[in-house]
Specification:
The protein has 244 residues and is an alpha/beta fold. The chain has one domain: NAD(P)-binding Rossmann-like Domain (Rossmann fold, 3-Layer(aba) Sandwich), CATH 3.40.50.720. The protein has eight helices and seven strands, in the order E-H-E-H-E-H-E-H-E-H-E-H-H-H-E. Helix 1 links the parallel strand 1 and strand 2. Helix 1 crosses helix 8 and helix 3 packs parallel to helix 4. The radius of gyration is 17 Å and the shape is globular. It starts with a strand and ends in a 6-residue tail after the last strand. The structure holds 1,4-dihydronicotinamide adenine dinucleotide (NAI). This is Short-chain dehydrogenase. One of its GO terms (biological process) is bile acid metabolic process. Pfam families: adh_short_C2 (PF13561). Belongs to the short-chain dehydrogenases/reductases (SDR) family.
Length: 244
């Protein structure tokens, strides 16, 4: 039985991905800063999916010690970690000069540095095992410009390019690395937008919709699965046609 570690698993896409992998009989380590929500969700999912194991670990993905603890916890429970999804992320809005310095630092730490920390903690074992799959959640904002998205675009732009270096450096160890780049997706993060903004995003889609988190989870599952064995170093947009 295979095991995956998913960050940002208490909500939105991470929670949907957790359900998708459990439904395919994977073990899942759910990692999230939000311990209350994360533990409640893990308890309920472990009752729903009895063929595999789901556990929760409170983690701040921007903190080195916290991420090391997540890796130690995961390796203690499961012999081998087959895949990780670096999905936890935050959004900060504003034109560049309006963004407070601590918000700039925070988004860079949560959305970008977290991938460095997760890699340092999980990839050495994947290298030893000569196998592994890594997925990062990037964003269409890493590909396009948009109003009031300077810090977020910069952070996700870094993730968009990082996938190539990771795929090049780790390919020789049998490790594949890909990004999913969601467009506007119906999660608690997106639902914070005013209805007027949501309507604008729907109108900007040629199929007149926003993305559902289940669509992202399905793409993540495909990219982790052996069906994607020839795909690495790619940034896969799942956007309902937004921004084409
Ligand atoms: P969400 O807000 O529903 O879920 C994000 C989860 O990450 C939350 O459970 C939160 O507690 C957790 N988290 C935040 N900071 C953390 C930290 N320091 N350590 C550990 N966990 C932390 O958001 P959603 O929409 O599911 O976002 C998932 C990913 O998708 C993020 O990377 C986001 O930037 C990205 N994304 C979202 C889009 C959208 O329209 N919803 C569009 C493009 C990308």
């Amino acid at each position: 039985m295979k095991t995956i570690v998913i960050t940002g698993a208490a909500s939105g896409m991470g929670l949907c991905a957790t359900k998708k992998f459990l439904s395919q009989n994977w073990n899942v380590v759910m990692a999230d800063f939000d311990s209350k929500n994360g533990q409640v969700k893990a308890d309920s999912l472990s009752k729903e999916f009895t063929n595999s194991k789901v556990v929760f670990k409170q983690t701040d993905v921007s903190d080195a010690e916290s991420v090391q603890n997540l890796a130690a916890f995961s390796h203690k429970i499961f012999d081998k970690i087959d895949a990780i999804i670096n999905n936890a992320g935050i959004f900060v809005s504003g034109a560049l000069h309006e963004i407070p310095e601590n918000s700039w630092d925070k988004i860079m730490n949560v959305d970008v540095k977290s991938i460095y920390l997760m890699t340092k903690s999980f990839v050495p074992d994947m290298i030893k095992n000569k196998s592994g799959v890594i997925i990062n959640t990037a964003s269409v904002s890493g590909l396009l410009g948009d109003y009031n998205m300077a810090a977020y675009s910069a952070a996700k732009g870094a993730v968009t390019n990082l996938v190539k270096s990771m795929a090049l450096d780790y390919g020789k160890y049998g490790i594949r690395v890909n990004n999913v780049a969601p467009g506007p997706t119906n999660t608690p993060m997106f639902q914070k937008n005013p209805q007027e903004t949501i309507d604008k995003f729907i109108a900007a889609s040629p199929i007149n919709k926003i993305v559902e988190p289940e669509d992202i989870a399905a793409t993540m599952y495909f990219l982790v699965s052996d069906d994607a064995r020839s795909i690495t170093g790619q940034n896969i947009p799942v956007t309902a046609g937004f921004g084409i």
